[in-house]
Amino acid sequence: TQLLEQSPQFLSIQEGENLTVYCNSSSVFSSLQWYRQEPGEGPVLLVTVVTGGEVKKLKRLTFQFGDARKDSSLHITAAQPGDTGLYLCGDYGGATNKLIFGTGTLLAVQP
Amino acid sequence: GAVVSQHPSRVICKSGTSVKIECRSLDFQATTMFWYRQFPKQSLMLMATSNEGSKATYEQGVEKDKFLINHASLTLSTLTVTSAHPEDSSFYICCGTDQETQYFGPGTRLLVL
Q1: What is the pLDDT of residues A46-62, one digit of tens each?
Q2: Distance, CA of A18 to CA of B8 (rounded, Å)
């Protein structure tokens, strides 16, 4: 069974600071996805990456996929209170045809 | 974009009763539906995967007789929590996929008294 471990588990920072969230898988990703979830809502897809070594940018968010396709990072520059939420990495597809999630990183950005 | 709705959004029930949660894909055909459970400040835990017209595949540790999943059509899947107990109180989320993109419902908050 594939395990997705995220770190840190909790993160509280001040507005304007930078941060990095990590995701490590016990096996190679089929299709890595990053989501953000706000309380009481479903997750919202931020990005999908499939190629090892790939870097994608979404405004102040930078996503990196490890060369071996077993790890990933999400870097947020100049965090804002609106970035507050639960960040989840996920893996979709492959032989199991499932969408499973990492342990999650709960981010709080204080104004 | 595609939308998935869930009903009810919140439900409170007495211990021992059954609760049905509906998940509808409004403008796409969900060939596969995932059901998740989420406890406060934790990640989404996959409960089961269902394909339209076939039996659901349950994850290890999830009781199939307690969490009944029906995926009778490409636009509707239901999760029934049978004989609910307080420990079943949680946030239940469905996710429909047309095999290319995944679309999440807004979730159902279940409180069992």
Answers
A1: 999 989 999 999 999 99
A2: 39
pLDDT tens digit sequence for B77-88 = 999 999 999 999
- Give how far the C-alpha of residue A43 lies from the chain's centroid of Cα atoms, to the nearest Å: 11
Smallest Cβ–Cβ distance between A42 and the set B32, B60, B105 belongs to B105
Tokens representing A110 are 């204080």
Interface test with A, best of B3, B44, B52 (most A CBs within 10 A): B44
B104 touches chain A (CB under 8 A): yes
Q: Measured between alpha carbons, how far is A74 from A107 in angstroms, rounded to an integer? A: 12
> What is the C-alpha radius of gyration for chain A, rounded to an integer number of angstroms?
13
Q: How many CB atoms lie within 10 A of CB B56?
A: 21
What pLDDT is attached to residue B1? 66
